[in-house]
Every structure is written in structure tokens, then in C-alpha cells.
Amino acid sequence: MRDVLRLTNSEASIFRDCRRRWYLGQYRGLTPARRTEFGAPTSIGNRVHDALQAYYDPARLTDPVEYVDASCMSDLIDFPFREETLRKEWKLCVGMVEGYLEWLAEEGVDAGYTVVGSEEAREVDLMEGVTLLAKLDVRVEEDMTGHIWSWDHKTGASGVEPKLLQLNTQALTQHLVEYLALKKEGRESEASQGTVFNFLKKSQRTARAKGPFYWRDPVRHNKAELEKHWQHVVAIAKEIRSTESRLDAGESHHTACPPNPGKDCTWKCEFFPVCSLHDDGSDVEAALEDLYVTHDPLERYTS
Fold first, then answer.
1. β partners of residue 198
2. CA pair distance 300, 58, nearest whole angstrom
3. Nearest-CA neighbor of 8 among 172, 153, 184?
4. Distance CA 57, CA 49 (A)
5. How far, in Å, are 8, 159, 176, 259, 267 from residue 136 at the CA level?
6. Per-residue pLDDT of the chain (303 residues; tens, 9 = 90+)
7. What does the alpha-carbon distance between residue 18 and residue 297 come to, in Å, rounded to a whole number?
8. Residues 84-120, buried b or exposed e (16+ Cβ, 10 A)?
9. pTM above 0.85, yes or no
10. CA 234 → CA 71, 101, 132, 172, 173, distances in Å?
11. What contacts 203, CB < 8 A, 6 or more positions away?
């Protein structure tokens, strides 16, 4: 068991969703040896998200189209065997961010906001032996009110039910970490109001495509919501610590971390190619050694 559990929303979400995926990716620290998910929703979403993060970062102010071009060219050099799929993703991502810049110019939706902080990692004490770690999104100040908001860039084929946005654990965790960090310094009044979800539709915006292609949904979190989320996160942390203890004591992952298969496994789980091998008598350890390598799951929080 880890001396200190540095819990992230990503680990908590994976643990809630599928304990087998958590066991392989978090407990054992495995990750695919070769990146092959180009064209998948996560790859497209991450590329567009990173391009917009660079665009709104005051220290970088990178043109998002140039960012996408550079990142895709780099991947094309590293993964020439995925050229066809990668070029399709490249074209889609460029079309999305080009249209986004046009939308900003035409609608003036960024007017009235000032960027006051770039993406940064913060960590706070949650309970004994557990900290809560989050990478906060870009922070903006609403010029008319002085309110601070977090901007979270999202991509998808359609909108998201507002009630689901209100329950979004990533936004809640980021807000909670920010609030607890500022409260410790006696500055909780400076915490953000919540999150503005900045949506980009996955579309080439052809003549037959239906909009809207870009929109924003603000979501506020009050202190009661943050308190309840703290309770939820503490509960998950306790379950993870207990599961780690069982595994450390030699209990089989089949009883400590049973799988939870679903229709989204094919695109969202990096361990889908080997999942069934755990149960059918195959030499799954040989497959894991061939297809995966060990890594630090928290690497993105230090880069």
C-alpha cells in the first residue's frame, strides 16, 4: 500500500467505474507500450483540449491550429504505421479549432473575460494518509462582476444534460481542491464560482452538419455541494486504501477488483484488448509484458 495515497479524480473515477482497470493501471502502474488510440474520442478530445490550453495560457499564447499541426506531425513521425487514422484525426481537429477561432471572432464570446491563471497542479490534505491532487484548468475573471471561473474545454458529438454537468466529478474535484487550498490560507472568498464548460462539437461543419458547433455552459458549485463532494471523495479514498491492503496481503484481484464490463470499454479502456484473457485461462501475464510498460500514473500532474 502506498505510504500516502495522492488521490486524483481520474483514479477515483476509474476505481468507481471498473476495479480491474484500476488494478492494472493504478495499482500495477501499467500503460500501453505503444500509443494506438488515434481517432478515438479520447485522443481527439485530448488533442483539442491541449491546443486550447496552450491558446489561453498567458505564458504561451499558442495558435491552436499550429499546436494541432505540430502535435500531429510529431505523432506521425513516431507512429507512421497509423498514418491513415492519424491524418483523419488531424483534419478533424484542425477543422474544430479553426471554426472555434472564427466563432470567437464573430460572436465575441471571450470579450468581458480576462485570463488570470494558467493550468496548474495543486494538492491538499484530504485525510490521514491521503491527499487530493488536481490539475486546475485556466482561470478567468469576469470583468463586470470580478468573479473567477474555471474554463474546461470539452469535445463531443452533442450537448450534455445540465444536471450531469452539475455532477461532473472532475469540475467538483478541481473546485474542491482550489477551495481547500485557499481556505487554508484564509482566502476562501477568492475561490472560483465554478466551471464554464467550453464545448466544441466533433464535426467538420459541412453543409449537411447541424449546429450549434460551439457553446458554453456555466455551472456553479455552492459550499454545500463542495462539502458533499468531500464526503464522497473521502469514501472512495477509504475504499481504495482497503482494496490496496487486501491486494498487498495476497488476495486475488479477481475478488478484490472484479471487472465491470460495459459498452464503452472498447474505446475508453486501454486494457480492453487483454481484459478477457484474465478469465479464460490464457497466459495474461505474457500478454501484459508484451503490450504494456510500467509508468507513473501521476506524471501528467508534474509536467
1. 153, 216
2. 20
3. 172
4. 12
5. 12, 23, 10, 30, 26
6. 788 999 999 999 999 999 999 999 999 999 999 776 788 888 999 999 999 999 998 888 899 999 999 999 999 998 999 999 999 999 999 999 999 999 999 999 999 899 988 888 999 999 999 999 999 888 999 999 999 999 999 998 777 777 889 999 999 999 999 999 999 999 988 889 999 999 999 988 877 888 899 999 999 999 999 999 999 999 999 999 999 999 999 999 999 999 999 998 988 899 999 999 999 999 999 999 999 999 999 988 876
7. 16
8. ebbeebbebbbbbbebbeebeeeeeeeeebeeebbee
9. yes
10. 37, 41, 10, 14, 12
11. 95, 96, 157, 209, 213
> Grid coordinates 472532475 are at which residue?
170
Q: What is the dihedral of CA 170, 174, 4, 227, to 10 degrees?
A: -90
135 Ramachandran zone, left/alpha/beta (phi>0; psi -120 to 50)? beta
| CA–CA dist 132, 234 (Å, integer) | 10
Show the cell assigned to 74: 510529431
What is the Cα–Cα distance from 214 to 20, expressed in whole angstroms?
Answer: 36
**Cα separation, 223 vs 273, whole angstroms:** 42
- CA-closest candidate to residue 5, choices 106, 113, 128, 93: 128
Q: Which amino acid, 191?
A: A
